[in-house]
């Protein structure tokens, strides 16, 4: 366990998701079992093996991003800045010359500016190198959501970007937690942002046989832990949290939403896309988060699962949860909000951390929708189809990524 002295609390949440473009709309969608999956509209997908996704709908950054600037930004950067501004507004944190060097930004992204890269590759091919946009490189690199958020907010403290595939958003939150714990920052803006619903993104994941191919019934395609799951549904969006040291938040009279108490990070060192059979890496990440938080399995009230709806992930994550939480694992609600939002890749850890924090604050466990056929290999309480009211004092959030990256975050009701 890392020796630390500073408690870290959450004071703001921001969300851009396939089921709501603000945190309140997103939470309402989670509680209602909303379904964000539909046929792709961002491009003509008629020739693709998978023709549906969980797109952000009716996204309008007017008033939050200058229209001229927005045209130069990749979509994932727009999501990240909008979510960050919402989180900062809720927190009431004012960034000024007096404190900006103690406030940092970490926004994770698994893919970065894929839309910009892909579109400019076509420009290069069709019109030649002189016509490629000068914004190509700045807007496709994965750190640019971090950079633009820092510029928009004027945050000059620790700044980095994490690119650990689907664990990136959770790694970003965990790394920000450590920076505050260890005294390197007083507050951090952190989370994940992603927008990879592009022809190349969808075709690439489809060729890897990672996606669901339920083109005749997209709404039922994301079905974590269900025996008939056949792959994940790609999604997009951003989730951002404002973390502060407890003393910093209290000194300014901030409303505290929850506390970050644990962070576990491991690597399978096994395969580029497949988890270790039995979920050993995920189990170690969960165990490390519990150890870091000085929590016992008996104290865990809810797990927001990685729950991608792929055959390999869900069964191995089930095994990991059983290993980490022992005999009580089957009694703990374990839901996958990806059943509603699809899989935001590097953005998923951000919106799922938001969900875990709100579950604690609101006393509601979001459901796993589309759950119809029990799988003996996934024999947990997956909160099927309907949200459940329950007192939640401690919640875990799991994120596992290609390359074998595993992250678990532990959140606790503030007291």
TrEMBL record:
One of its GO terms (biological process) is fatty acid biosynthetic process. The keyword Iron does not apply. PROSITE patterns: KS3_1, KS3_2. Pathway: Lipid metabolism; fatty acid biosynthesis. GO terms for cellular component: cytosol. Keywords: Acyltransferase, Fatty acid biosynthesis, Fatty acid metabolism, Lipid biosynthesis, Lipid metabolism, Transferase. Residues 5-413 form the Ketosynthase family 3 (KS3) domain. Gene3D superfamilies: 3.40.47.10. The active site is at 166 (for beta-ketoacyl synthase activity). It catalyses: (9Z)-hexadecenoyl-[ACP] + malonyl-[ACP] + H(+) = 3-oxo-(11Z)-octadecenoyl-[ACP] + holo-[ACP] + CO2; a fatty acyl-[ACP] + malonyl-[ACP] + H(+) = a 3-oxoacyl-[ACP] + holo-[ACP] + CO2. GO terms for molecular function: 3-oxoacyl-[acyl-carrier-protein] synthase activity. Its EC number is 2.3.1.179. SUPFAM superfamilies: Thiolase-like. It comes from the Bacteria. The keyword Transferase applies. NCBIfam families: fabF (TIGR03150), PRK06333.1 (NF004970), PRK07314.1 (NF005589). Involved in the type II fatty acid elongation cycle. Catalyzes the elongation of a wide range of acyl-ACP by the addition of two carbons from malonyl-ACP to an acyl acceptor. Can efficiently catalyze the conversion of palmitoleoyl-ACP (cis-hexadec-9-enoyl-ACP) to cis-vaccenoyl-ACP (cis-octadec-11-enoyl-ACP), an essential step in the thermal regulation of fatty acid composition. Belongs to the thiolase-like superfamily. Beta-ketoacyl-ACP synthases family. This is 3-oxoacyl-[acyl-carrier-protein] synthase 2. It comes from Synechococcus lacustris str. Tous.
């Amino acid at each position: 366990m890392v020796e630390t002295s500073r408690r870290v609390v959450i004071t703001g949440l921001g969300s851009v998701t396939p089921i709501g473009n603000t945190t309140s709309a997103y939470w309402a969608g989670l509680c209602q079992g909303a379904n964000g999956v539909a046929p792709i509209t961002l491009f003509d997908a008629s020739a693709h093996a998978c023709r549906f996704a969980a797109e952000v709908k009716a996204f309008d950054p007017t008033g939050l991003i200058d229209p001229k600037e927005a045209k130069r930004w990749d979509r994932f950067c727009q999501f990240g800045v909008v979510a960050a501004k919402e989180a900062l507004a809720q927190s009431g944190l004012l960034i000024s010359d007096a404190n900006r060097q103690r406030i940092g930004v970490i926004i994770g992204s698994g893919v970065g500016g894929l839309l910009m890269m892909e579109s400019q590759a076509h420009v290069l091919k069709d019109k030649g190198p002189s016509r490629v946009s000068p914004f190509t490189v700045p807007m496709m690199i994965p750190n640019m959501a971090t950079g633009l958020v820092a510029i928009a907010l004027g945050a000059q403290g620790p700044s980095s970007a994490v690119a650990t595939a689907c664990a990136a958003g959770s790694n970003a939150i965990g790394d920000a937690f450590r920076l505050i714990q260890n005294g390197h920052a007083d507050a951090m803006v952190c989370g994940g942002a992603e927008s990879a619903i592009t022809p190349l993104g969808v075709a690439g994941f489809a060729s890897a046989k990672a996606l669901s191919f339920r083109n005749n019934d997209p709404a039922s395609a994301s079905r974590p832990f269900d025996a008939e799951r056949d792959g994940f549904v790609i999604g997009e969006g951003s989730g951002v949290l404002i973390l502060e040291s407890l003393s910093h938040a209290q000194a300014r009279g901030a409303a505290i939403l929850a506390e970050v108490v644990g962070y576990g990070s491991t690597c399978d060192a096994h395969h580029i896309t497949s988890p270790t059979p039995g979920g050993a890496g995920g189990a170690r990440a969960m165990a490390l988060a519990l150890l870091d938080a000085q929590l016992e399995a008996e104290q865990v009230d809810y797990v927001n699962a990685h729950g991608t709806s792929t055959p390999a992930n869900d069964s191995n994550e089930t095994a990991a949860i059983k290993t980490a939480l022992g005999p009580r694992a089957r009694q703990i609600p374990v839901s996958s909000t990806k059943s509603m939002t699809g899989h935001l890749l590097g953005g998923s850890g951000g919106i799922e951390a938001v969900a875990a924090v709100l579950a604690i604050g609101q006393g509601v466990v979001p459901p796993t929708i589309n759950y119809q056929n029990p799988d003996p290999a996934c024999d947990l309480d997956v909160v099927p189809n309907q949200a459940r009211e329950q007192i939640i004092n401690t919640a875990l959030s799991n994120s596992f990524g290609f390359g074998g990256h595993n992250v678990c975050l532990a959140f606790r009701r503030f007291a």
